Amino acid sequence: MNVIETENIIYSYPDGTQALKNVDFKAAKGKIIALLGPNGAGKSTLFLHFNGILKPSSGTVRVNGNPLDYSKKGLIEVRQKVGIVFQNPDDQLFAPTVVEDVAFGPMNIGLSDEEVEDRVKESLERVGMDGMENKAPHHLSGGQKKRVAIAGILAMRPEIMVLDEPTSGLDPKGASQIMHLLYSLNQEGMTIVISTHDVDLVPLYAYNVYIISDGKIIKEGNPSEVFEDIKTIRDANLRLPRIAHLMEILKKEDKLPFDKPYPLTIGEARRKILKEFKD
Questions:
Q1: Would you kindly state where each structural domain of the chain is located, as residue ranges?
Q2: pLDDT band at residue 275, thresholds of 50, 70 and 90?
Q3: Reduced to 3 states, what is the DSSP secondary structure of residue 194?
Q4: Residue 11 to residue 23: CA distance in whole angstroms
Q5: CATH number assigned to the domain with residue range 30-55+79-222, chosen from the 4 options 3.40.50.10490, 3.40.50.300, 3.40.50.1400, 3.10.310.30
Q6: CA distance 174 to 212
Q7: 128 to each of 159, 160, 176, 178, 269, how far by Cα in Å?
Q8: Which of 57, 74, 152, 278 is the most buried (most CB within 10 A)?
Q9: What is the pLDDT of residues 24-39, one digit of tens each?
Q10: What are the angstrom distances between the C-alpha of 274 and each of 128, 247, 257, 258?
C-alpha cells in the first residue's frame, strides 16, 4: 500500500517558474523512501505538497489513497498524519523554550494538558533531548535543533514523517545519530521519506529511491537499480556512493574481477570480494 502518492503534479510559482513537471511519486507504507537530487531540483517543493502546504497547479496528491482535501478541516487532518521536518530547523522552531515548541502542535489540536505533557515528555526522550525542556532553541547546536524539530513532529504521532535534508549542516557523528533515530522509528512502523544529496546514506537506509532533476523524476527503483544507471546519476549532478565509485575505478584499471552492479556499501563490497576470491 502506498501511503503517499502523487500523480502528474505540476507546480508553478507566482512568477511563472515551473518547479515540478508531471511528477509521479509513491511512498510505500512502513518503508524508507529517498528523494535524491541537486540543490534547486524541486525536492523541497515536492515535499511541501505532501501535507498541503502547497497545492499543485494540476495533478493529484493522495494520502492513504485519498486525494488531499484542502479545506481547513482537511488540512488539519492530513497534517496529523504527515509531519514535515524542514531542512533548516530555525524555520520550524519559534517558541521561547524547547518544551513550548514541542507542545505547540498537540495543544493546537485540542488535546488535554495531561495528554500534551505525556506526548512532549515521550517525544523528547525519544530523540534524546530530555532534560533540555527549558533551554531556548536558539541556544542549541545544529544537531540538537534537528532533534527538537523531529520531537515536535513526533508529538503529533504521525503515520508518515517527511524530512528535507535531515543531515544537512551536521558533522558525521550528528548525521549518523539522526539517521539511526530515523531507522529506529521506521523499524517501529513509521513511514520515512527523506530528501538528500548525500548519496552515501541512501544504500544504507532506503528501500526505494527517486532521482529528481529540474523538477522531473528521471529515475526510480531500489538503490541497486538506480545507482547502476551511472549516466543518469551524473547527468543529475550527483555521484556514485564512494564504494561504488572505487569499484568503478578499479574495474577500469582491470583490478576488479566482477562487473556491475557495483556494491554500494562496505558490507556489500566485502561479501562480493570474498565470494569472488572463494570461487
A1: 30-55+79-222, 240-279
A2: confident
A3: strand
A4: 9
A5: 3.40.50.300
A6: 26
A7: 21, 20, 14, 11, 33
A8: 152
A9: 999 999 999 999 998 8
A10: 39, 14, 11, 12
- Gap between the Cα atoms of 29 and 221, Å rounded: 16
- Is residue 178 within 8 Å of residue 185, measured between CB atoms? no
The total of other beta-carbon atoms located within 10 Å of residue 65's CB is 9
Distances (CA, A) of 182 to 137, 185, 189: 21, 5, 11
pTM: 0.92
Residue position matching grid coordinates 479545506: 71
Are 33 and 47 contacting, i.e. CB atoms less than 8 angstroms apart? no
- Residue 122's SS3 state is helix
Q: Which of 78-92, 125-139, 265-279 has the lowest mean pLDDT?
A: 265-279
Q: For the chain, what percentages of helix, strand and coil (3-state, to nearest 5) are there?
A: 40, 20, 35
Cell of 80: 496529523
37 vs 33: CA distance, rounded Å: 13
pLDDT, residue 66, reads 96
Asked if 261 and 227 touch (Cβ cutoff 8 Å), the reply is yes
The amino acid that residue 120 corresponds to is V
- Mean pLDDT of the chain, nearest integer: 92
